[in-house]
Specification:
Layout lengths: L1 H21 L7 E5 L2 E5 L10 H20 L5 H13 L1 E8 L4 E8 L6 E6 L6 E4 L19 E7 L5 E7 L6 E7 L4 E2 L4 E4 L8 E2 L5 E6 L15 E6 L9 E4 L13 E5 L7 E7 L7 E5 H5 L6 E4 L5 E7 L2 E6 L7 E6 L9 E4 L6 E8 L2 E8 L3 E8 L2 E5 L7 E6 L7 E7 L2 E9 L4 E4 L14 E9 L5 E9 L10 E5 L13 H8 L3 E5 L9 H5 L7 H16 L8 E6 L2 H11 L6 E5 L18 H4 L5 H9 L14 E7 L8 H13 L6 E6 L10 H18 L12
Parallel strand pairs: 34-35, 34-36, 36-37, 37-38, 38-39
Antiparallel strand pairs: 1-2, 3-4, 4-5, 5-6, 7-8, 8-9, 9-10, 9-11, 12-13, 13-14, 14-15, 16-17, 17-18, 18-19, 20-21, 21-22, 22-23, 24-25, 25-26, 26-27, 28-29, 29-30, 30-31, 32-33, 33-35
Helix pairs in contact: 1-2, 3-12, 7-8
Length: 731
């Protein structure tokens, strides 16, 4: 049996390599002229995902990938361990929503269950009531590709008084939701189903003060292949009991032409308290600072359109909270690390506001929460060291956290209540939720279950350092490893990297990272420029023409870890998804010899072709506009597809994409793999795996995500030579 197994594995790998080399993608080259720069696109034809030739090639590559992945010894290790962790605690809870009258709504998934269900407690210590199981959902869509199975709940929104709850459901990673409304007391579900939305991503659901309806964002076009996909979106006022087909458009480019709303903006209506006098209209796009408007509540509900501008992008305002006539907000105006400010609806002094908390030199102000006792706020240093403060009567006090935390999350009921909840977590610390009592300065645990014991992870060490990049800039680097490893250059090293949209790679209890470390490996999270770890300037320094800083920071992090003998080039895998695909793709095209493995999930890999990628219109603000001759040069420089060169030895590469991805078209992954296969002269496998039941990575059953992760880590450890993932030698 050992001989048979070994031969099957070797033959499977050999067959894959041969089959790929004889099954190269069809190439129909196109030459484009961009502002006088001629660019050859060898695989433009693969952008047509309705072409049978393209479909067949992508499916054949996926079959090959699954063949190889299923042949890797110990492939199920991560999958089995994640399921084992779930069984230990028994269930997991997320999306906790607490109403003013102390009703706790949340999502809960018991071990072994496919999807989260909606639950309620009246008070934290109240009896648990199961409100809704997504398995009971009957879709409003009658198409053959929609069944009741595999729907997942991606967000919930209770009304102000908790008498009703809106439940958003989706499937297949499409990021398109159907929303139902339930009467909580008797679990009655209203027959009307809202479609063409996704409140988990844009705007949310904002209830009217009398709980009779809500606002949501509507997508007129939901065809992934349409040039108008998710353009000209509208904020809709829905009254419970009305037909969702009779849309009441209250905020949009069509309804409000005088506001000059772009076709690619997402106009969303915000409501902070039921008694507020105004509604806020915000134009959501890829940037933190957004054009924002306001209107008296009465006027909007009576059908008036007298929106007034609250602030523009240049004011650099975000994270606003409304209380009566007062507006609290974070300001990036002349403050890269942000300051906490206050103004009023009458003065609207956003560039010269009342500064409650000035900018701090080495700490970035992030989240804040208003309470009766003052304003609680969180800062982070390098995105990984969190602190909690209270501003009370003009005095700032640091509150000692229950344990050293890399990430702190706040939740409160508002300015009329003292209630404040703090959730703390870290790379090696499971998230714990506490209710803080200011009077006694104590944290009372409010976890929705017992903390899990992980005896196999007891020797995990975490180290936060900075390294010098190519230009001398200090780049934060998080290291996770077993304290018993030897720094001899032989450890499997996984480097995770993102670096875009000002997003912060905040520490969380990453069980997959810890399992890698427990198998003798090292995990590094490189907090490269383009993220928000060191404030707004850190983000800008990884945008557009400065985007090369992102992958050069990743390369510098890799070189540091090699020099310090954490690992060596033959033992290094790099991992990134979505916008992180730029960092991974350009790192291996610029320095292919530095890495053994590259793994890219739903990656942005062909930035010069945004015009054929629907929703990516909004991302031009992050990466650059191809119609601008200067910004186009930046797009070309960050285009990984365009930087693949013939005759070079590229690392072993696994590229995942979801066929339903609404953000990054899967043809980007297909084109990248096609060119890499045709160009590389190494014997390293290059695999394309299209998930035909997935999208951008979210909104899928957790078991499906566990399986994908198990494949990713098994592929990496196989290629890095970990003995548990190699075919057994026959004696």
């Amino acid at each position: 049996m050992k001989k048979k197994y070994l031969l099957l594995f070797i033959n499977s790998v050999s067959s894959l390599v041969i089959a790929q080399k004889t099954n190269l993608a069809p190439s129909v080259p196109v030459i484009d002229d961009y502002h006088g720069i001629k660019v050859v696109d060898e695989y433009r034809n693969l952008e047509n995902l309705k072409d049978p030739t393209t479909i067949n090639w992508m499916k054949s590559q996926t079959d090959y990938a699954n063949s190889i992945l299923s042949s890797i010894p110990n492939r199920d290790y991560y999958f089995n361990k994640r399921e084992d962790f779930d069984k230990r605690v028994g269930y997991s809870v997320s999306d906790i929503r607490i109403t003013r009258n102390d009703k706790y709504f949340y999502l809960k998934r018991n071990a072994g269950e496919k999807a989260y269900k909606v639950y309620l407690r009246n008070g934290f210590n109240g009896n648990e009531i199961m409100l809704y199981d997504p398995a009971n959902f009957v879709s409003s869509k009658k198409t053959s590709d929609v069944s009741n199975s595999d729907f997942v709940i991606n967000t919930i929104s209770p009304s102000w008084d908790g008498s009703k709850i809106a439940i958003s459901l989706t499937k297949g990673g499409r990021e398109l939701s159907e929303v139902i409304v339930m009467e909580v007391d008797n679990k009655y579900i209203h027959p009307e189903i809202i479609i063409n939305t996704n409140p988990a991503n844009i705007g949310g659901i904002k209830w009217l003060g009398d709980n009779s309806g809500f606002f949501y964002v509507y997508y007129p076009v939901v065809d992934l292949y349409s040039k108008d996909f998710r353009k000209n979106t509208q904020s809709i006022l829905y009254k419970i009991g009305e037909s969702p087909t009779k849309l009441k458009n209250v905020f949009s480019g069509v309804n409000n032409p005088d506001l000059k709303i772009s076709t690619t903006d997402y106009p969303a209506v915000l409501a902070f308290n039921p008694e507020d006098k105004y509604y806020i209209g915000i134009l959501v796009d890829a940037e933190d600072f957004r054009r924002t408007f306001f209107i008296p509540k009465k006027d909007l509900l009576e059908g008036n359109k007298n929106w007034q501008q609250l602030y523009d992008k240049d004011s650099k305002v975000f994270s606003i909270k409304f209380v009566d006539n007062d507006i609290y907000f974070l300001s990036g105006y002349n403050s890269s690390n942000f300051k906490l400010c206050k103004t009023s609806i009458t003065t609207r002094k956003f560039k010269d506001p009342e500064v409650l908390v000035p900018e701090k030199k080495d700490e970035v102000i992030g989240q804040y929460a208003l309470t009766k006792d003052g304003v609680y706020y969180v800062t982070t240093r390098n995105g990984v060291e969190a602190k909690l403060y209270l501003l009370k009567d003009g005095k700032e006090t640091q509150i000692k956290l229950p344990f050293a935390s890399g990430n702190v999350d706040l939740q409160s009921k508002g300015l009329d209540f003292s209630d404040i909840w703090i959730s703390c977590s870290g790379w090696a610390n499971e998230e714990q939720r506490f209710k803080y009592d200011l009077q006694t300065n104590t944290f009372k645990p409010e976890n929705f279950g017992q903390l899990t014991e992980h005896p196999e992870l007891k020797d995990i060490a975490v180290e936060e350092i900075t390294i010098k990049s190519y230009d001398g800039t200090e780049v934060p680097l998080s290291l996770i490893y077993n304290k018993n490893i030897k720094r001899d250059g032989n450890n499997p090293l996984l480097i995770d990297c993102y670096g875009a949209f000002g997003s912060v790679a905040t520490p969380f209890f990453a069980r997959s990272y810890l399992l890698w470390a427990n198998q003798g490996g090292v995990v590094a999270v490189s907090h490269v420029r383009g993220g928000g770890e060191k404030g707004d300037n850190w983000h800008k320094d990884g945008q557009k023409l400065k985007k090369p800083n992102t992958w050069k920071d990743l390369i510098a992090s890799t070189e540091y870890l090699i020099n310090q003998k954490y690992s060596s080039s033959e033992k290094i895998a790099i991992l990134g998804g979505s916008a992180g695909g730029i960092a991974i793709g350009r790192a291996i095209t610029e320095r292919p010899e530095l890495f053994k493995v590259a793994i890219i999930e739903s990656g942005v890999l062909n930035t010069t072709r945004f015009d054929n990628n629907g929703i990516q219109e909004t991302s031009k603000k992050e990466y650059g506009n191809p119609n601008d001759p200067i910004e186009f040069k930046g797009l070309l420089e960050m285009d990984s597809f365009q930087h693949i060169k013939e005759g070079r030895k590229y690392p072993a590469t696994l590229v995942y994409a979801g066929i339903n991805d609404p953000r990054v078209a899967p043809w980007q992954s297909g084109k990248f793999v096609a060119k890499l296969l045709a160009s590389t002269v190494s014997k390293n496998p290059v695999l394309l795996n299209i998930d035909y039941d997935g999208g951008h990575g979210g909104d899928i059953p957790l078991v499906q995500r566990y399986r994908n992760l198990s494949n990713i880590y098994a592929f990496a450890l196989w290629q890095l030579g970990h003995p548990d993932y190699q075919p057994k030698k026959v004696r």
